[in-house]
Protein: Glycosyltransferase
Amino acid sequence: MEAPGRRSMGNKKTFVLYPSLGVGHLIPMVELAKHLLRHGLAVLVAVVDPPDTDAVSAAAVSRLAAANPAISFRLLPAPASPDAAAHPAKRSHDTLRLANPALRDLLRSLPAAADALLLDMFCVDALDVAAELGVPAYFFFASAAGDLACFLNLPYLYPTLPSFKDMGKTLVRCPGMPPIRALDMVITMQDKESEQTKIRLYQFARIPEGRGVLVNSFDWLEPRALKALKDGVCVPGRPTPRVFCIGPLVNDGKSGETHECLAWLDAQPERSVVFLCFGSKGAFSAAQLQEIARGLESSGHRFLWAVRSPPEEHDKFPEPDLERLLPAGFLERTRGRGMVVKNWVPQAEVVRHEAAGAFVTHCGWNSVLEAIMAGLPMICWPLYAEQGMNKVFMVEEMKIAVELQGYEELVKAEEVEAKVRLVMETEEGKILRERLAMAREKALEATKEGGSSEVAFAEFLTDLEKKS
Structure:
């Protein structure tokens, strides 16, 4: 499948982008594709399309293609994992490995050889196809440089430790990052003997085989992690791939879609609204929804809250029953200062709206970067994947957020109220807003001509020329 209006690649350098399974991996690749196009390069995004629920649906790709007509998309048919009962990490890994023949056929079918293959961090087996065809392969790491430093080190560190699940609050120390409690390490790697942990360690161990790593971050934000990566201390005994910080690459907040919440925000005072949004997987238990609601009501502040059905109810009630899930009378009592929407809001537009004053976030890296580009203070509520680690970076290292206590089990209403008041009312909140204003300024500087991220991208292209 190709996007409408595909331009001829002509004599331009051609980059093939290869995301892992799932929309969450595809969207950052689309932002990278836009960046390449802005630099006059030709782009093709190859999307693995297995016949199971792990796939990015053809409909989602069609929507992205229609919104980005200058980007070519190609669906690659691939078998599903032969082990349907396996952990999702194992199924995804199997499917990506089984997609190698389709990727090989695509690369061979191009009118001219691809100048580079840009891989998602989980697409490590595509390195074999790149080597076979002589195509330079780089990775695009869509999360924090601190995560990269940790992941590159884990294949060497983890064999010397017990399972993270048995270490509790014991601190784990990796080069380039602050000490992190074992319980905040990646959820899929809590049990070192599990199949999914072994898959992740295999994937992380292969990343240094790439010719370099493009990271969606910027120099000012993560100096400690970038120094460790540059000094080669994350990968003992072998060369560390060169790292190019080319971010932040994020949605510009101009989707063209209309949503009722945007009109509501237009009527709110500047920097007055607390925005709560937890991504496509951010569903809480009914008990947690009640606590959040009570905390918001007690805080007295304006709020915009995207609510999903609890995980145990989602199949039966894909659209949440707000009257049943939230405290009795909550919607009526807060009608003048709060808005609760079902399932989805245009996050990139909301965080950039002048009425937004704070962002309660699951700490996904794309959300973090969107908030930085808006100068919006954050309250951390990590939910899954690498987000416990991101929380530590954001609070301790970058100092761009505050942490909600109790997120491992149940965050109480009093804690929600306290952190909302801290950010919106106190001197500490004022300092946090000033820090975010500076972070935004530094991010904009990095992406301007002559800025650190633009220089890094030029160095990537020079590196590619040398190695080609």
